[in-house]
Design goal:
This protein has 267 residues and is of the alpha/beta class. It is built from 11 helices and 8 strands. The longest helix has 17 residues. The radius of gyration is 18 Å and the shape is globular.
Length: 267
């Protein structure tokens, strides 16, 4: 098996006992029926902006073909303070007097109740990974590190993998990310592989592609063939351990994800 191509080894479909390359987009970039034919995974984005609905997600799971994988972003009530501009897109927001009870991975009663909503929705969806993306404002500090560690130790589950994508100054302090999640089973480090490497090895690797360039994101970047060939090489090592998710999150994500899959078949 190890002497065969990357495409065959990863299968691009569920094969018992064989690692799977999961490639797709952060959000539906085309009609769902067409998407299911093109990709084998999607990362839901609406679960970040609004309280996720388990009933709707269960129906979504039932329509998907066998072997298709869903992942989802955690609801912003858990990660983003009410002052964050992302709340402008929400249909509901907590009362202003509870502003210090939500967001920033707090282990308050309100935040943990919000996580229970997310976990219930993830189970209904059959989500393999919940992406917990914290805001740039929740950068590294001793207090934020303590808070994040306490949160992840509290919510870690055998039902799904939790993928933390820290933003802001955490990028410059990978050793501190490792201190937070290094010994917590079921919690992994989500990175853009062109900008960073996960701080720990795990049975699941999750890459989010935000474009190449300055800063943390460059959504208008279109990946070149040489970029995508380099990406095919980047998935080789984690593919020896387990499933790899490669999720594009840029303006050209549909074309780039399809081109990536085509190139990986040739490796």
């Amino acid at each position: 098996m190890v002497t065969r191509s990357l495409h065959y080894k990863l299968g691009l479909a569920t094969v018992t006992g064989t690692p799977v390359l999961r490639a797709g987009c952060c959000g539906w970039c085309m009609g769902r029926s067409s998407y299911y034919r093109a990709f084998n995974a999607v990362e839901l984005q609406d679960t970040f902006y609004d309280r996720p609905d388990p009933e709707r997600l269960s129906k979504l799971r039932s329509e998907a073909p066998e072997g298709f994988a869903f992942t989802m972003k955690a609801w912003q009530a858990i990660t983003h303070p009410l002052s964050s501009p992302t709340w402008r897109r929400s249909k509901w927001r907590p009362p202003a007097e509870l502003a210090d009870r939500y967001g920033n991975l707090r282990t308050t009663k309100e935040n943990l109740e919000a996580w229970d909503v997310v976990a219930k929705a993830a189970r209904a969806l059959g989500a393999k990974v919940i992406v917990v993306q914290t805001s740039p404002g929740f950068g590294f500090s001793e207090e934020n590190a303590r808070q994040a560690r306490e949160f992840f130790r509290t919510v870690a589950s055998r039902d799904f993998v939790i993928g933390w994508e820290p933003r802001g100054t955490w990028r410059e302090r990978p050793e501190e990310v490792l201190k937070v999640i290094g010994d917590i089973d079921g919690v992994i480090h989500v990175v853009d592989p062109f900008r960073a490497s996960p701080v720990k090895e795990a049975a699941v690797t999750y890459f989010r592609l935000h474009g190449i360039g300055r800063g943390e994101v460059n959504y208008r970047y279109k990946y070149k063939e040489e970029d995508l060939r380099a990406l095919c090489e980047k998935v080789r090592e984690p593919a020896a351990r387990g499933d790899v998710y490669v999720m594009f999150n840029n303006v050209y994500m549909k074309d780039d994800a399809q081109a990536f899959l085509g190139l990986c078949k040739q490796v």
